[in-house]
Amino acid sequence: MPRIVTAPTDLTFTRGAEDRRALHLAMGLSLVLGVLMFVMKVTAYLLTGSAAILSDAAESVVHVAAVTFAAYSLRLSFRPADDLHLYGHTKISFFSAGFEGAMIILAALYIIYASGAKWWGGLHLENLGLGTVLTVLATIINGALGGYLVWLGEKKRSLILEANGKHVLTDCWTSLGVIVGLLLTLWTGWLPFDPIFAILVALNILWSGAGLIRRSVGGLMDATDPETHLKLVALLDAETGRQGVGYHDLRHRNLGDAQRVVVHLLFPAHLSIRDAHAIATRIEETVEATLNPGSQVITHLEAAEDHTDVHGARAH
Fold it and tell me: Would the pTM count as exceeding 0.90?
């Protein structure tokens, strides 16, 4: 009998055209505004010579680099499965989140270095009023953009967009810290407020970047999400109880925008394969409809009476 070769089945979550347009538009908006924020902050730094504003501008440089990689990752994640990637490309979202986290940490370390260098070398500030106005404007824009990106990323189950939004919000918090430092400097005339607040902002950025990297590593290592696990157990308990079957060996992993679930179902030995398959299909469909849209459930059918003996034989 000739061997039949087929293309890999695309088991990845296929987004609708509307979702893709929304995500691409949001990422494009993030990139354009990121460049605009960078220009504004560099202008503010050139006007003032402020270490805090320099730290804010440095974070914007990192943001532009990160969002460029995120835009590429988003486009790649939409590709269907192929001969080399049988499970699709959605896990690029975890690489993207890790890259953003690493870029955030790099920016924070540079901010600490630059602030210390300026403090050690002697502080000289001017045009603080205009620099503060530009920084406030950048903060308002970033706050609105970051909140929108996180909201859309959670709604559309896009870790790439959500991570980018959190990076933008980190930039916003950076700017808020800079504004406080500038206002205190203007109010008191004590110049060290400027580098002190720049360093405090950098420490906050380090924490944010570490959080993104932890999430990235967890996704790449298939760390179990306790909330998802409890939800799956409750679903399977209810559905298998309703259908009069058992289950064991539940496993699941995060694909980036959906869940892949594998579970063994235990059926009475007298049940026909056709009837057992029909029950398994109903259970799969119920779980898939309740979890994130696009999640996939794969079941393995076993006879309840001898499955322990069969697994024991395989183990030996």
Answer: no
